[in-house]
Here is the input.
Amino acid sequence: MEDQILDRTRRALARYQDDSVNRLSYQQMALSHASLSHKQTLLKVGFGDYLENLLDCVEKNQFLLDEISEAAGKNFGFDPSTRPNTNERTLRCDHARVNDLLSSLAREWSVEGAEERRVTFGPILKELETRIEAAGVGSEALKVLVPGSRLARLPFEIAVKFPGAEVFANESNMSLLFGMNFVLNECERVNNFRMYPHLSELSDRNSTRAVTTPVAFPDIDTQERPENFFLKPMKDTFSEIANSMEPGSIDYVVTSFFLDSVRNPIEVIDLIKRLLKPGTGVWINLGDASTSYDPYADNPKMAPVVSIPWNLVMKVAEESFEILKDEIIETDLPFCQGDSMKEIVMKCPFIVCKSK
Here is the structure.
């Protein structure tokens, strides 16, 4: 199964340009089918140039994705010189994951994503600092697990802030794992690479520049790390990771927009309880459980998604945890796709729970 997912991921990255051009062809078709007067007007105001610019941006993204895929070879067990079979069509969900990778690079590892990181990662890092100082235990004795770590910026910040702590970055999305590997192991200087993360959504744009302006990454030198820096990527599902680790072995579990990405948030809460040290282990969570997971994205035979209101989630948590903090943090939709004409404000639960 893992080999199949690996092949799908490599194919989706290799076919990004073809798949994106196919999607953009609808815009070109709209131009060609316009009346003569409308076509002249659209060309006069620069619509044709805009479409050509989009295609150029797509091509540049493909160069970057090829580098990301090639760099993954040595850590994911494939020969990067062998091209995947690009004759097969890309599954829609796999192409969406590639676009998500580009957006996540901007969100987690660029200057443009700094404000959202301040709002979403800031409270978590502050809470960790407060709890660790209050416990009076050196960070070298701590184990911190971050499920759904995506491109690992949050666990990276934790590992930098608390040298000596064992920080585990758990992510199961293969596209994001490729990106994590690239940022942590292949980027040798600040703003080493440029890409265009806003090409997947063309509606509600203030300007053409909102779509075609490049974003540089990473915003920091990821090779500048303190002594005793420990960050370990873990590539299986959270369920597989939790069941492979010793019960009661983790000091802190940190989840950021994770509960809304799983099929069964109640199972996740049970697994977090299992992993945390009894009486002292702390779970810090930002985000609710209104799942955005597509139940038919991969396999319609999989178990149904459990969508549960937040107040019921809290009642479940109260069975196993002492609730130390329960707040609401308002933020824009995670990494707004560039300069958009619409703004969505999210009210995100922020909770801190201690094992009973």
Summary: Residues 248 and 275 are 5 Å apart (CA to CA). The longest strand covers residues 321-332. Strands lie at 143-147, 166-170, 193-195, 215-217, 231-234, 252-256, 282-286, 321-332, 345-355. The radius of gyration is 22 Å.
